[in-house]
Every structure is written in structure tokens, then in C-alpha cells.
Amino acid sequence: MIDPVTLAVIQAGLQQVCDEMDLTFSRAAFSPVIAEADDRSDGIYSATDGSLIAQGSKGLPVFVGVMQFSTRTILERIRTGITAAPEPGDIYIVNDPYLGGTHLMDVRFAMPVWRGGDIFCWLSNTGHWPDTGGAVPGGFSASAISAEQEGLRLPPVKLFKKGALDQEIYQIICSNIRVSEQRIGDVKAQASALLVGAERLAALLDRYGDATVVEAIAEMRRLAAKQMRAMIGLIPDGTYRSTAIVDSDGVVNQPLTIALSVTKSDGALRFDFSESSPPCMGPMNSVRATTLSAVYLAMRHIFPEVPISAGAFEPLEVTGIEGTFLDAQYPRPVSGCAAEVSQRIAEAVFAALVQALPTPVTAAPAGTSGNFGLGGHDPEKGRDYVMYQISGGGYGGFAGGDGISNGCSTIGISKAPPVEIMEQSYPVLYCRYALHEGSGGAGQFRGGFGLDYEIELLRGDARASFVMDHGRVGPQGALGGQDGAVNRVEVIRNGVTMVPEHLSKAQDIALKPGDRVRVRTPGGGGYGDPAKRDPGLVAEDVRLGRYDAADAEALWPRPNASNPNKP
After folding, report:
1. Using one digit for the tens of pLDDT, what is the confidence trace for 114-134?
2. Cα–Cα distances in Å, from 359 out to 241, 327, 529, 545?
């Protein structure tokens, strides 16, 4: 049996391999959404069943489960002869949501690592491409009613064959996406990250031996499952229920409901979504891989001590998604699944389990990636562009503290690209970039504040599209805390302000120079009874302009004779 010290060193070594892949990917990528916002992830997967071995600590949590499912799909298609068998130097590309994916913009590469003529494991990564074709620049078609309207869908095919880029397949891709001349930078960065990973992994295997590393991987999986069961043991037996609301599907202006019951029994957790809304017409359906991964990432938020490994998922059972909008089948559109619906799923998990675990679980975070796509032609630079803006929001309050302001989304570590980079890359001016004051939900510990930004188009014509959420209801408060403020989107054209019909979703809005878009992202939910908040903290928020005095008075009333217990 492997000794604990060697196990710890190998586990850290595998983690470092993934971290170096992440770093290589971001440093070499062309697109700001990858190079600056880090919307990507890298991992190591089993050659037998595609199960997760290790993932980079700086990768998006939502990809924890997704790349496991997509790698598994590639292996199954190779075994059945649907996909060509690999040779050394081959790298597969796939973005099909229904084959273990998310939305079309999340493009995955996968490469086998060979040892002595056999495949030891697979390396895979995912990068968010700014555009994969479809009806609108950026791919976030808020009113798509079929997968074809969202962009180019790729099954697993070899983009690199024996180390060389397949120009025929690459030209097919370029012929179906916008600003195709810019994609080669991201393609080479994505492939380079895998090659760096293979080199680092080979050094680790040479040092400790293949058999020792295989033994360590098996032990890592066993221990991860054991640790997750130990964490689950902290939850009292019983059933905990919650709901989360999606604003609309972008086509039918009615909310969608995620209805969840979490049952703890026999050392395992069962997540039942069977009472959720049926499949929807618009792009807010979620594919199975994303739905399961959303549950996994929610549990990672609650129990971050458990190592990232397929073993950590074994005690988690997800049921009841069949026949709901959380198990989309072709040709249902899904552009909002990973960026938005996954965060509503996580919010439902938080809202259910905060009842049982009030200390480690927080009130709901902002829960939207704030997807804003802008595409057009820049006459000054003489080229087309597709700008993709993601944005943060407030985190939920928690036992012992207020939520973080303008934090990254629930599903990842991606951050908004720097304003200076965006203004340099695209014909826009950021007229405002500040906290969304007053957006944190009231509570003993208030929610963090969202982001308030405003962008002006400087030159050329452009089209804007949005796929966001939490415009109808704000992020949920917990244990008596109030909800955070809702997401607010305004488009100012010719001096006239317009709010999208679906509040957080719209597409193909024509903009001319001088037109502006303002977005105020949600604040986090409040935690605990607002009446128990320290009056000094309320006064400090007012002094700093985070709330005006009247709003603070309404949210946290001062002591009075009739109720001296109020702060």
C-alpha cells in the first residue's frame, strides 16, 4: 500500500500539472475572455472511464463534472467506432452540448497520454471561444428555439492528427464562425496547454513509476469518496426542500422553476429535481452533464476540504431530471445552461442545505455570469470584432461575515476582463464602473454588492445581446435574511432608455455611436435576521455611500421605545 507521504506528493504533483496547463492556456490565448478573464479549465482523466483524476485549482468549478462526461463520451464513441481511434499526437475537439458538454462556446480539447504504447490517461481542457457562429455575435441568442440557431456544433473529431493541425477541419470551423482569423491564437494556446501537461506528467511518471502513480490515483479516489461521506455525515438525516427561479427562457416571458428536495440517508445525498419545470422553448434548458456538474460544484462550495476527484461525486445521486428543462435533448437550445441555469441549480442546493448546515452554507450569491455579447465592425481598425463581457456580483452573507462585493460567479473563478484591455481591444468606452450600491440583501450579515457598469459604443454599428438572470427576483436570503437586489439592464439609444421585455435577456439590439448599455448585477442575499445587525456596521455602510440613510433606516430600523431590541 502506498505510504501517505508519497501519496500526498503525487497528489500535489498531479494538481501542479493541471495548474501549469491552466497558466499556459491563459498566457498564450488571444481572446480576453480566456487570457484575462480565465474562462477555461484543464484536467486529467481516466483512460478507462473518463473519470476525473485531477483538475487545476484555477479552473472553472462548473467544468469539474462536465469534462469528465465529455471525455467519457469520446471513449465510448471510440470503442463503438463512431469516432476514429487515437494515435500519438492526436487532439480531439468537441463542443456538442448533448455529448457531455455545456453550451457551444465552451470548446473542449482532449488528448491521450501514451506510455509504452498504451494510453495512460487523457488530458482535456475547455476554453470559452468568443464566437462559434449562430444567430448573434457571441453565441448567446436569447430567443433561439433550436440548437442550430446557437452556432456550430462539433462532435468529437481529430483537430490535430499526429501533432499537425488538420487544415480541412479547421477551415470548416473558420467558415462557420465570426472573426475566424483570430481563432488560431486560442486554438494553439489550447493545444499547447495539453502538450505542456503531457510533458509535466511524463516527468512525474518517470520519477515515481507508472504503477506507483496508478496506485496513488486509486487511493485518491477512495479517500475523496470517504471524505465526502464524512462531510455528508454532518447533515442530519431528513429531507430539505427549496426552489430557485429562472427569469424566463428568453422566448416565453414566464419564470421557470427549479424545485429541489435533498434527502440525506445512509451516508449519501439524493438530489431530486422531478418537480421542476418541463423543457422550455428558449435557450435556458440545461443538458444532463451541466446539471450534474452544477450539483457537484455546489457541494464543492459547501465542502471545499474534499479533494477534487471522481470519488467525491460517488455519494451524490441526482434524480428526477428526466422530462424537465434540466435534461435537455437535441434540438433544445442551451446557450444559457452553463452560464445561468447551473447557477440557479447551485442556488437551490444552497437554499436547501443551509437549513441543515447553517454555518458552512451561505445565502445565495449573485448567480449570473452577466453574459453580454457585442459584435460589429470597427472602422478605425478595419476589422470585425466580437466582444464578450462577463461580470461579477455580490456573494451571500454567511455565519460571521458580510458577503464579498463584485466576486466572480458561482460557477467559476472567471473575472471581468480589465476595462483597459476591453477599451484597447474594442470600440467602446466604459463610462461607469462601480459597485451596485444598495444591492446587498439585508441581514445580520448583509450580502455583498454587485457591479454597476455602463458602456458606450464609440464608432461603427454594432449588435448587442444579453443572456443573464435574476432580473425578476434577487438572490435568496437565508435564515431570515432578505434577498439581494435584482439584475438591471438598460439600453440607451438616442437618449431614450429601454428595458428588455425579458429583463435580463434580449438579442440583436442595434447600436450606433453614442448609444450606451448599463448593467447593474445582483447583490448577494442577506444572512440572518436584519434586526440583529451591529448598528455600527449599518452606520459605516451609510458613511461609505453603500446605502443612503433612508434605505438603511428601512432595512435596519434604529432602536425605539416600542421595540428596544431593534438595533
Report:
1. 999 999 999 999 999 999 999
2. 18, 32, 15, 29
